[in-house]
Write a structure and sequence with these properties.
Blueprint (H helix, E strand, L loop, with lengths): L2 H10 L6 H10 L1 H20 L10 H9 L7 H10 L1 H12 L1 H40 L3 H48 L7 H11 L16 H40 L3 H22 L3 H24 L1 H6 L3 H59 L6 H58 L17 E3 L3 E9 L5 E10 L5 E4 L6 H8 L10 E4 L6 E4 L8 E2 H6 L4 H14 L7 H10 L10 H4 L3 H5 L3 H5 L7 H11 L13 E2 L1 H4 L2 H15 L3 E5 L7 H14 L3 E5 L11 E6 L8 E6 L2 H35 L14
Parallel strand pairs: 1-5, 4-10, 4-11, 6-9, 9-10
Antiparallel strand pairs: 2-3, 2-5, 7-8, 11-12
Helix pairs in contact: 3-11, 3-15, 6-7, 6-8, 6-15, 7-8, 7-10, 7-15, 8-10, 8-15, 9-15, 10-15, 11-14, 12-14, 12-15, 14-15, 19-25
The chain binds adenosine-5'-triphosphate.
Protein name: DEBR0S2_03818g1_1
Pfam families: ABC_membrane_2, ABC_tran
Family: Belongs to the ABC transporter superfamily. ABCD family. Peroxisomal fatty acyl CoA transporter (TC 3.A.1.203) subfamily.
Length: 798
């Protein structure tokens, strides 16, 4: 009879309860009971670890509820609905289907991770057995065997350490692959090939939407696109890579422990049942202390984001803030946002401390005590049935079992705790995926709406039902309406052909730049308007008041938005074809010389030494390659450059700097003009892009653009000195009482207009002077006729 049967037979002799029948039933269904125990354990663990948020999100209020509610127990129906509708699963599917290469790598690293975790669990089991054996050999005083065992124990350390380090490495690789996949997925909509300005539109949408949802408990998903792409994806990848270890490692530990117990212990079935019950009760108790991790993460990220944004603003506008002595105001803003973050972190720490206490106590000590009890049970029962007289061999076997089991059980109870703690990781993953999914969905929505406006190859400037293509730029009854729905101009009509430059004038805020936003495809062409534009986006170039400069070489500033690869390709192509003009490094340096920026080249001496005369005698036609044939000197220089014997070392254009920081506004505008000369588009939109350049050089810049390079400009400029470069005028007018501006388009004779303008100014000045004279005369008359003034001759009035 087994020890177990002996125990159960003891009370039977003294009681009238049908213990025998119960025992028979129990012995018959022992396996079923064991399985029930395992199911109980699993259910309790998953229930505690379940974190499936409600999928019935429709509006923001539902979204808010979904996060403020505690996750309800895991059911099959919820799992099914989670699988089909959850943003988390959808995001994962997107990552795995869109970027096949990353998906393959993810699968590969996951397999590696699973294999390594299996090896680790097997090693742990072996080490536990060896531990027990070592104790048994010590008790049995078998030194030789003990030493052998110790050597094996020591040697096992090599694969154990190797496995651990490999697990970490594979985890890092998994995180990297997932990050790559997720970033590529988002990038497809963030900067789409179609050239659609989704980020511009999204930012517009954000400014129009609710400003701060943090206080409402749900931060704005798209409040910070850069945070999404840089931080959230990284956090997600990191958490995803750790999850297999967090989930599988403890599960394997528990399974191996259970397996070992079922082999070595007579009480395995009962112990499992008891363990299942205790684990269920423990997880129920733990639920009371478990905070809503998803909500904590979400609010924490939003507050961090706000704090970062204020700092970024401070850095971006440092000069303006410093000159305005705005440091106190900025400090207030930073302090407030930091205080909010700090207060929330304190709350978070408090909640986590309570949770960690409950976790540690229940799982480490509660279940640990239970484990020790189970380990001690065979020793006490053996001692009891043998009348407390035990053979030494039995003692050493029992001691070995005790140590091995104790180690395994304690690690199993710890594993159970870790498994439940992985709930935090799962909830964080859900939160990150939901944020990214919503961010991606917003971008997709914008791109879908703009599929009308942009072709997939990104070749067209704009597309849509109200757009057609031609050689000209025509606006036909186009209403100018802001994204927020404000009408700026009700009906805008004008048309210009190549060679017919347009001057756009009007008061501030009437919609001059907005016209260019429509032309650039940032704002849609609203019905009943219709526009005709050149089909290729390369034919229209836009230069704003403050141009964008990348962090890179001086050469890249001129080439932008072309890449270095495109530049090299163009140079090679032009050389192969034997073009008269090759836009190579030498050409770029000449352009810099043209706008007096040669000092930016590291070795500017080279421009003024040997080649001084040449550069001075340089003709714009040579650069434009339009009318004049290239001079032999330029040919010589180009071939010298090609042969690597150039007097213009490439280092000059290779300087890397933070260009907006080291260049004055005027220099930046001149560099932007060099960019325009390099690209030589058919049309150029110049939106006050020379406002900081001295009048003489500004005229020169316009002259080179229009006359030398033959670019047709559409310019907003306030200086009358630039009028002569335009053939047509578009004048926006808006009275103080008018809701929106009207636009007048006519042919423009700058000479005549300028004469009239000067005449008008003269008349106004004369009239003003006249009015002053009349007023003075009135005053003098009044003084003379005042009755109370003592009569004296103030002036002689003839
Ligand atoms: N993205 C936007 N969303 C909503 N309104 C906008 C947006 N961009 C500009 N506006 C509004 O449209 C109006 C016209 O702006 P626009 O930049 O066209 O003026 P402008 O005529 O070029 O003025 P200025 O001479 O000062 O440059 C302004 O009132 C501005 O606030």
């Amino acid at each position: 009879m087994s020890e177990l049967a002996q125990i159960f037979t003891l009370p039977q002799q003294r009681s009238k309860i049908p213990v025998r029948k119960l025992l028979a039933f129990y012995t018959k269904h022992r396996k079923l009971l064991t399985r029930t125990a395992y199911i109980l354990i699993l259910y309790s663990i998953f229930n505690a670890g379940s974190s499936v948020p409600s999928n019935k999100r429709k509006g923001s209020s539902n979204t808010k509820n979904a996060h403020s509610k505690r996750p309800s127990p895991l059911t099959l129906k919820r799992i099914r609905s989670f699988w089909s509708r959850s943003p988390t699963i959808s995001f994962f599917k997107q990552v795995l289907t869109k970027d096949r290469k990353s998906a393959l790598r993810i699968a590969q690293y996951l397999t590696w991770q699973l294999g390594l975790l299996g090896v680790k669990a097997a090693i742990t089991l072996n080490i536990a057995s060896l531990d027990g054996k070592l104790v048994s050999l010590i008790v049995g005083k078998k030194f030789k065997q003990f030493f052998k065992c110790l050597v094996i124990w020591f040697l096992i350390g090599i694969p154990a350490s190797l496995t651990n380090s490999l697990i970490r490495k594979v985890q890092g690789m998994l995180a990297q692959s997932f990050r790559t996949g997720a970033t590529n997925t988002i990038m497809d909509n963030y900067l789409p090939n179609s050239g659609n300005s989704s980020i511009y539109q999204l930012t517009n949408k954000m400014s129009a939407g609710p400003k701060d949802e943090i206080s409402a408990g749900r931060p704005n998903k798209v409040s910070s696109p850069n945070q999404m792409v840089t931080v959230t994806i990284d956090q997600l990848a990191d958490t995803v890579s750790k999850l297999p270890v967090q989930l599988i490692d403890p599960i394997l530990d528990i399974l191996l422990t259970a397996n070992r117990f079922s082999k070595v212990s007579e009480y395995a079935t009962e112990s499992s049942l008891l363990l299942g019950l205790i684990a269920s009760v423990s997880t129920l108790v733990l639920k009371v202390f478990t905070p809503n991790f998803a909500k904590l993460t979400s609010v924490h990220n939003a507050l961090e984001n706000k704090f970062h944004t204020y700092h970024t603003q401070l850095i971006n506008h440092r000069e303006e803030i410093a000159l305005a002595r705005g440091h106190r105001r900025e400090l207030d803003l930073l302090d407030t946002s930091y205080f909010e973050l700090e207060r929330f972190q304190r709350l978070e720490l408090r909640k986590m401390a309570i949770y960690n206490f409950a976790m540690g106590f229940i799982f480490k000590y509660g279940l640990g005590a239970f484990g020790l009890m189970m380990c001690a049970a065979p020793i006490f029962s053996t001692a009891y049935f043998s009348g407390f007289v035990v053979d030494e061999r039995v003692v050493s076997r029992l001691a070995a079992d005790f140590f091995a089991n104790k180690r395994l059980l304690l690690s199993a109870s710890d594993s159970l705790g870790r498994l439940i703690y992985s709930k935090k990781a799962v909830q964080n993953i859900i939160e990150y995926c939901t944020s990214l999914y919503e961010f991606d969905a917003s971008l997709k929505e914008i791109n879908m709406l703009s599929t009308n406006c942009c072709d997939p190859d990104g070749d067209h400037l704009i597309e849509g039902p109200n757009v057609s293509y031609g050689e000209e730029i025509t606006f036909d009854h186009v209403p100018v309406i802001t994204p927020t729905g404000n009408i700026l101009v009700k009906d805008l009509t004008f048309s210009i052909k190549p060679g017919q430059s347009l001057l756009v004038i009007g008061p501030n805020g009437c919609g001059k730049s907005s016209l260019f936003r429509i032309l650039g495809g940032l704002w849609e062409v609203r019905s009943p308007g219709h526009v005709i534009v050149p089909s290729s986006r390369k034919q229209v170039f836009y230069l704003p008041q403050s141009s964008y400069f990348t962090y890179g070489t001086l050469r890249e500033q001129i080439l932008y938005p072309d890449s270095m690869a495109e530049y090299r390709e163009n140079v090679e192509f032009a050389r192969k074809r034997g073009n008269t003009v090759v836009k190579d490094d030498l050409y770029l340096m000449k352009l810099l010389k043209l706008i007096h920026l040669e000092h930016l080249l590291a070795n500017s001496d080279s421009l003024s030494s040997d080649d001084e005369d040449e550069a001075d005698g340089f003709q714009f036609g040579e650069l434009a390659g339009s009318k004049n044939s290239r001079s032999s000197s330029l040919q010589d220089e180009n071939s010298r450059l090609r042969d690597g014997n150039s007097h213009f070392p490439p280092s000059g254009l290779d300087i890397v700097a933070k260009w907006p920081d080291i260049l004055s506004t005027g220099e930046q505008q001149r560099l932007a003009m060099a960019r325009l000369y390099y690209h030589q588009p058919k049309f150029a939109v110049l939106d006050e892009c020379t406002s900081a350049i001295s009048p003489d050089l500004e005229k020169e810049c316009y002259r080179i653009a229009t006359k030398s390079f033959g670019i047709t400009v559409l310019s907003v400029c306030h200086r009358t000195s630039l009028w002569k470069f335009h053939d047509y005028i578009l004048k926006f007018q808006k009275g103080p009482q008018d809701k929106y501006a009207t636009a007048l388009f006519t042919r423009f004779d700058p000479e005549k207009r300028l004469r009239r303008h000067k005449e008008l100014l003269q008349i106004k000045a004369d009239l003003k002077k006249n009015q002053e004279l009349v007023a003075r005369l009135e005053f003098l008359k009044r003084t003379q006729s005042r009755p109370n003034i003592r009569r004296k001759m103030l002036y002689i009035d003839e």
